[in-house]
Target: Peptidylprolyl isomerase
Amino acid sequence: MKKVLTNTLILFMGFFAIAPAFGQGQGISLNKIIAKVDNYYVLKTDLEEAYQSYVGQNQTPPQKCQLLESLVINKMMLAKAEIDSVVVEDKLVDNELDSRMQYMIQQFGSDKNIVEAYGKSLEMLKSELRQQVKDQKVVQKMQQKITSDMKVTPREVKKFFEEIPKDSLPYMPAEVEVGQIVRFAKPTKEQKDALKQRLLDIKKRVQDGEDFAKLAKEFSEDVGSAQNGGDLGFAKRGMMVAPFEGAALKLKPNEMSDVVESDFGLHLIQLLETRGAEYHARHILLRPDYNRLDLAGPTKYLDSLRALIVVDSLKFEKAAKEYSDDKSTADAGGLLRNPETGSSRLAMDGSMEYAMFQMLDTMAVGSISKPLAYRTEDGKSAVRLLFYKSKIAPHTADYKLDFEKLQNIVLTNKKNRAIDEWFRKSVADVYITVDPEFSSCRIFGTTQNSAAQVGGGGN
Model:
């Protein structure tokens, strides 16, 4: 199989990391079916949006034949997943969908701005995105199924490195290790009391006969569950945050809780049913206005903590574990990690958060910043200390220094070869046709079946 297959697979997996296009090619007739894999279709709209996603991020797009091959691979993964009965739980899809919607709200500033930008309601946008998220999860599960046993040895890494011509060794950018201690801005008692009263008023309306689901759609600030009437589906014990789960499990079916506070805000919970070790609940969530929270308290707290660390009365790692509100980094002593590779080494370039880049650029290795205000990925107001732990200067790739990166490259290559082999074996299990407009594209390195036009497409 041509090497382009591996390349396009990698490119394809990047599509889902890009903000959803939601059919922005308005005014252009792109709804024509251009490829079919069993009962799965690739529309011309899909190809155009894949192309524009690169343009929108100021990246050079691959050739459209290469993009089309990636999209066909996607559909082939889905078709084979259906044949092999590979499924993903709705809860996983819903969680990812909620995360994406929260990210969009953060990027656009408000729900209203999103609606105005796309000309569609949040419910419609979310509905359009849900299938994309589900497909992504299925494809990821298929890839994991194919490559789950893949491992590499130090000998393989060394062999790979030694086979690279010395004059072709890549130049590695500067990388840093950074730790953080985070303190969230807390709502005042007055703000909490106001939210609590709103929830108690809603609870009374339900007790007086109004529909919980309807009120959840109207008032809940949990974007993911609100459109489903606050319904969170069945959850296994341990899946929800402790305050929520503890309150829900004390209820009888159809009973409502008092107001419950968690890291996400204030909840009114209604238990619907239990099933063995699982429970089915819905809620109405209200959050404080994070733009109005006072940062003075967490700033003062971190100032005092920094003073202890600077005079060596307290180690940064210990302080992070004990006092940081960011649980995702606290257990690692505050150390930030690259979400894609899991490495603690972060590229100090345009991919880094701009405010962090600016601060580190003024700091010496081993120093700790003063408290810095920032906004978390889920929109919370917070203050943090940054610890500039180490820096690796730009350099030509080195076996010892860059072993982790080289290991990831070798592992990725091995996984790609396994996926290539899977495609070679599986392509006969599905029927692929491509529209004559793209007959020159060599899908899977061949033009077989590409002369047949797929029926049912638009003009």
User: Anything to note?
Assistant: The chain has three domains: 4-152+404-445, 174-187+293-393, 189-287. The domain at 174-187+293-393 is CATH 3.10.50.40 (Chitinase A; domain 3). The two ends are 33 Å apart (CA to CA).
